[in-house]
Amino acid sequence: MDSIYLDNAATTPVLEEVIDIMTLTLSASFGNPSSIHSQGRTAKSIIENTRKSIAKELGAQPKEIIFTSGGTEGDNMILQGAVHGLGIDTIITSKIEHHAVLHAVENLEKTAAVTVQYVKVLSDGSPDIDDLERLLQNDNTKKLVSLIHVNNELGTIIDLETIGNLCRKNNAFFHSDTVQSIGHYRFNLQELPIDFLVAAAHKFHGPKGIGFVFIRKETGFQSLLFGGGQERGLRAGTESVHNIVGLGEAFSHAYTNLDDDQSKIADIKSYCIAQLASKIPNLSFNGCCDDLSKSSYTILNVRIPMSADKANLLGFTLDLKGICCSKGSACQAGSETGSHVLNHILSEKKLQSPSIRLSFSKFNTKKDIDHLVNVLEEYISS
Questions:
Q1: Which residue(s) pair with 302 in the sheet?
Q2: How many CB atoms lie within 10 A of CB 43?
Q3: 378 burial via Cβ count (<10 Å: 0-12, 13-18, 19+)
Q4: Are 134 and 143 in contact (CB under 8 A)?
Q5: Which percentage of the chain shows pLDDT scores above 70?
Q6: Does position 331 have pLDDT exceeding 50, yes or no?
Q7: 279: CATH
Q8: pTM of the prediction?
Q9: Catalytic residue ranges
Q10: What's the alpha-carbon Rg for the chain, to the nearest Å?
Q11: Which of 225, 256, 287 is the last residue of a domain?
Q12: Which domain, by its residues, includes 145?
């Protein structure tokens, strides 16, 4: 049975072009980028050209793009660096952030005497802007706001410009986990009032284990890793050249084809919403994921009416039928406590029904959706 992959928020299939250029780089450009001989200079040139192309697309300066191992390292790097290097006293975040942020913040609260404040979250998964303004004006401590751009479970999109302007008005730094949005939305960092953002290549058809952070040059950010001084002295360690090349190739494909891909994937998501709503009575959509003006065109979080016994075997049944999806974020798929995001925004009664996260890519078709809906219909009625 062919697999129907609807878990693109967890990771995406790697483009063939990305695999090809990574393979070529591994064999032909194996030098250490810090070496001064020809092989080293070639590797260094590859890295810098990739950095420049990313910076140009995002409206950043090349020195503001720092390569990392991915989203978790990027979030930790920014949060810990802000506390230990920038003297942040207070971190304002929400309780529905990715665990890369939540667990890092919890650790800083314990080990660095940082005050952590949680902004109220509305039922659609967006932060309460009035409450955020209250927290920013609450005292005179040095603050950093960390809020996810596209929620990895709900797909809710927050207004980076409004929040960024509010942070600047109150002399606070602004960090956003943009792992689910880089490669899927355009950014102009010359105009967008944000200090730090994070990306991971495997969310836009690149390899795992590589990503980057944007660190605005005026912030005064300092390194947490000490070694050879790579990555402008902000992230020591020999760069993974083939992974950086793969990231750059995937990034280029993402933005070259962005308009067409957005249109195609949004059409798939709209079709899925319509089919689920018409074929499965009492089905619900969590947050605002069924509103494409407020949520990502790639993510749909669905609450399905069924008994507890059936709910326990839902994931197994979908997998048996060749459907790959998540009951929440893939990072917590084995958790017995369920989704911390849904636990925060749904009532106890609503939590009794199982929820699944469906996430789409340009490789999905309406035929995939038809199969999904048929499987759910049969399982519910059996």
A1: 285, 356
A2: 24
A3: exposed
A4: no
A5: 97
A6: no
A7: 3.90.1150.10
A8: 0.95
A9: 331
A10: 21
A11: 256
A12: 16-256
